[in-house]
# Entry
Amino acid sequence: MEKDEITALIAKAPLFSRISKKGLAAIADKAVSKEFAAGTNIVSAGATGTGFYLILSGAAKVVRDGQVVAKLGAGDFFGEMSLLDGEPRSADVVATQDTVCLVISMWALKGIIAVIPDVAVHMLEELVHRLRKTENALS
# Structure
């Protein structure tokens, strides 16, 4: 996949949608593509989280305490909390089809933020938006 295509896909993820072209290009440079067969755990609850995943193709489900809490497809992402704090994963994410993800490690992102701080500001805005949405759904 070409760098411009990768950059455009990253920009479609709400977490990165407000980031400058320079920031997006830096993220694209550090991202790697990984393939997961259907039925494979992409990440496991309780495991140390060190990366953000953007689904390029395929599908997955988020499972917490044995319950499917979300279904994900191309353009969806997960791992943003662990990307920032390195804490254990809060759920399993299981490929329900053969799935290709773009993966950005915590170390790569921290290096980018050190050089392009607005990346962090825009990510925080999206995380707060998602938190508010979750809180409203629980109310």
Notes: The longest helix spans residues 118-138. Helices lie at 3-12, 21-30, 80-85, 106-115, 118-138. The first strand starts at residue 32 and ends at 36. The chain is about 40% helix and 30% strand.
